[in-house]
Write a structure and sequence with these properties.
The protein has helices at about 1-35, 60-75, 80-105, 115-135, 160-175, 185-200, 205-225, 235-250, 255-260, 265-280, 290-300, 305-325, and strands spanning about 145, 150-155. The chain is an all-alpha fold. The chain contains twelve helices and two strands; from the N terminus they run ααααββαααααααα. The protein has a two-stranded antiparallel ribbon with strand order 1-2. Helix 4 crosses helix 5, helix 5 (about 160-175) packs antiparallel against helix 8 and helix 6 (about 185-200) packs parallel to helix 12 (about 305-325). GO terms for molecular function: transferase activity. Pathway: Cell wall biogenesis; peptidoglycan biosynthesis. This is Phospho-N-acetylmuramoyl-pentapeptide-transferase. Its EC number is 2.7.8.13.
C-alpha cells in the first residue's frame, strides 16, 4: 500500500511541477499585458526599486495548478474532508490576498485593503475553517500533542483561539517574509515538506499527497521567482501559503511544532514587532530595516546570500521539528 502512496505522491509532485512550468510563461505575459506589476514602496531599499513593474499575483498560478492536480489525479479520495479543508484554507486566504493585490495594482500604490478589513477577512476564513473541521472531521477534538512527552492535553475552549491565531498569525508571517526573490517560496517548500512527513507517520496519506502537489507547484514557481525574479507571488500567494501551513499543522495535530517549523517566519514577524514597539516607545530602531531580511541587506549582504542563509535556517528548524515530533 505504501508503494502505491509513494507513487501517487511522486505523480502529484511531478504533474504540479510540470503544469506550473507550462502555464507560468503565459501567465507572466498576460499579467504584463494587464500591467499588473509590483509597486515598490518609496521608503524601500534602492536596490529594490528596479523590481517595480515585475508581474505580481503569481500565487494565482500555483494555487490553481495545485488544486487542479489534486482534484483530477485523486478523484477517488474526494470523500476525504481533509482535502476540502486544505483547499478551503489555501483558496480562502488566497482570495483575501488577491483582493489586496488587485487594489494595489489597480491604484498603482501600496494601498491595498485597509489593515482592519484585511484582518477581518482573514479572521472569517480562520473561524470558518475551525467550524468546518469540527463538523466534518470525525473525532475532531480540542486536544494538542506535546512533543517529547507523547501525551495529549485537552485545552478546551482555548483550542479554537489557538487555531484562530495559527491562521491569522501564520498567514501574515509568510506575507512579511515575502520580500526577497524566492525567500518565502523556498521556506514554504521546506515547511510543507516537514508536514508531509508527519502526515505519512499518521497514515494521513491524502494530506501528504496534497502537500507534495503544492511543493511541486512551488518548485515550478521557483524557476521564475528566484533572483532575478520574473514574477512575484504577491499577497495572493503568501497569504494562501500561510493558511495552508496552518491547516497542515492542525490536521496533522502538530500545533505546537508549527511555531518551530515556521521558525524563520516567526523571526521575521518578531523583527517587525520589535522594530515598531522600539520606535514608538524609545524613538529608536533596533534593526536598520524590518523585516529582518532587509536588515542583512543593509549590512551589505547580497539578496542571494540572505535568501540562501534563511533557507538553511528554515531547513534546520524543519529538521529539529521532525526530531521532536518523532522522539
Amino acid at each position: 500500500m505504501f508503494n502505491m502512496v509513494f507513487l501517487r505522491i511522486v505523480l502529484n509532485f511531478l504533474v504540479g511541477f510540470i503544469l506550473v512550468l507550462a502555464v507560468m510563461p503565459k501567465a507572466i505575459q498576460y499579467l504584463k499585458k494587464l500591467k499588473f506589476g509590483q509597486v515598490e514602496r518609496e521608503e524601500g531599499l534602492q536596490s529594490h526599486k528596479a523590481k517595480g513593474g515585475t508581474p505580481t499575483m503569481g500565487g494565482i498560478v500555483f494555487i490553481l495548478c495545485a488544486v487542479v492536480v489534486v482534484y483530477i489525479l485523486n478523484f477517488t479520495s474526494l470523500n476525504n474532508p481533509y482535502i476540502h479543508l486544505l483547499t478551503f484554507s489555501f483558496v480562502g486566504f488566497g482570495l483575501v490576498g488577491f483582493i489586496d493585490d488587485y487594489l494595489i495594482v489597480v491604484r498603482k500604490t501600496n494601498d491595498g485593503l485597509k489593515p482592519l478589513y484585511k484582518y477581518t477577512l482573514q479572521s472569517v476564513v480562520a473561524i470558518a475553517f475551525y467550524i468546518l473541521a469540527k463538523f466534518f472531521i470525525p473525532g475532531f477534538d480540542t486536544a494538542i500533542s506535546i512533543p517529547l512527552l507523547h501525551i495529549e492535553i485537552d485545552i478546551g475552549w482555548l483550542y479554537p483561539i489557538l487555531v484562530y491565531f495559527m491562521f491569522t498569525a501564520g498567514s501574515n508571517a509568510v506575507n512579511l517574509t515575502d520580500g526577497l526573490d524566492g525567500l518565502a517560496t523556498g521556506l514554504s517548500m521546506i515547511a510543507i515538506s516537514v508536514f508531509v512527513i508527519f502526515a505519512i507517520m499518521n497514515k494521513d496519506y491524502d494530506i501528504a499527497i496534497y502537500a507534495m502537489a503544492v511543493v511541486g507547484t512551488l518548485l515550478g514557481f521557483m524557476c521564475f521567482n528566484y533572483h532575478p525574479a520574473r514574477i512575484f507571488m504577491g499577497d495572493t500567494g503568501s497569504l494562501a501559503l500561510g493558511g495552508f501551513l496552518a491547516a497542515l499543522a492542525v490536521l496533522t495535530r502538530q500545533e505546537l511544532l508549527f511555531i518551530l517549523i515556521g521558525g524563520v517566519f516567526l523571526i521575521e514577524t518578531l523583527s517587525v514587532i520589535i522594530q515598531v514597539v522600539s520606535f514608538k516607545t524609545r524613538g529608536k530602531r533596533v534593526f536598520k530595516m524590518a523585516p529582518i531580511h532587509h536588515h542583512f541587506e543593509m549590512l551589505g549582504w547580497s539578496e542571494q546570500q540572505v535568501v540562501i542563509s534563511f533557507w538553511f535556517l528554515g531547513f534546520i528548524c524543519g529538521i529539529i521539528g521532525i526530531v521532536l515530533g518523532v522522539m
